[in-house]
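User: What would this chain look like folded?
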Amino acid sequence: MLKFFELELFQQWFFEYTSRFTSIDPEYTRNIVLKTAHTKNVCKEIIDIASSLGLNQGEINLATAIALFHDIGRFEQYNRYQTFADHKSENHAALGINILKENLILENIDPEARDLIIYSVLHHNCAVLPLKAPEKELFYARMIRDADKLDIFRLVIDYYQNKEGTQNVALELGLPNNNEISDFVISDIKAGEIVKIQNVKTLNDFKLLQLSWIYDINYHWTFKCIKDRNYFEELFESIPKNDKTTEIYSLACSYLENKLSV
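Assistant: Here's the prediction, encoded as structure tokens.
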């Protein structure tokens, strides 16, 4: 599906491209480094997911290329707007596709592989995947969505535990950090749905949105990683405890356990 030398060329271009984003501003540099590290980790996660599904090497190479490019738009997004909030700037997935096309990165590979990369990158950040799409496109899109979520869990939990001791406004999407939680957010999770971004008003709402991602996990390997790495427990540690949050945490955990038992 994708030859190893093609993946190597993609990797060389990625690191050359991202190295252009430099600044004397330490906050700028921190967020560029953060996104570069995130991309590397998502590549590792998707290789594990793809391997668990029995994919051949060409298919694993393709999945890795999708992971490599899934956030390529984030660098220019942050450069232009100093935010990772799409609703305050522009859709970073669409921006990424434009960057790949402008740089002719995908021109010389197999057309089917090119179409799968474009589809998966473009849809990796959608609230939900389209109901009607070819199964192969959905298959790769589901893999990148799972791999992306796994590393975002790691990244935000590290941040919420405040290991660095400093605030990162870009990671918080500029949301107020108070104890308020929207009733709409609670309702979404009780309904077994991903929290709608328009209902997110505070940082705690955003944390609960991340908890609600469990309803959009696709593969058994991913569920197992969430369980084994204690992501839910550690995420919940950063959320104010009351009857409502405890209830929805319990619902999410039950959903996870049910998926693992299948």
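The chain is about 65% helix and 0% strand. If you want, I can go into more detail on any region.
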